[in-house]
Amino acid sequence: MLPEISIVIPAYEESERIGNTLHRIVDYISVQSKVFELIVVDDGSGDDTAAVAEKILSGQANCSYKVIRYESNRGKGVCGADGAGSCPWPNCAIYGC
Prior knowledge:
The protein has 97 residues and is an alpha/beta fold. It contains 3 helices and 4 strands.
């Protein structure tokens, strides 16, 4: 089933904060009775941003997810656009951490 809502989260060096962000989004969306997906785009972080996102999202039964990781920093705009490009339209939101 296609998601009703796709949320793109561009992230750079966010390993300390992204866990809280993802938990809050999942908690909110899960009570809305919507089929949703989260797309985290790690913009070449030198920390464990992608690994933290993968660990948290892999444990969520009520959402699908993608973690996209760039080797080098490409900029928040590029990450948002690329993440949105991987969403099934029409309902896609880009969230700024």
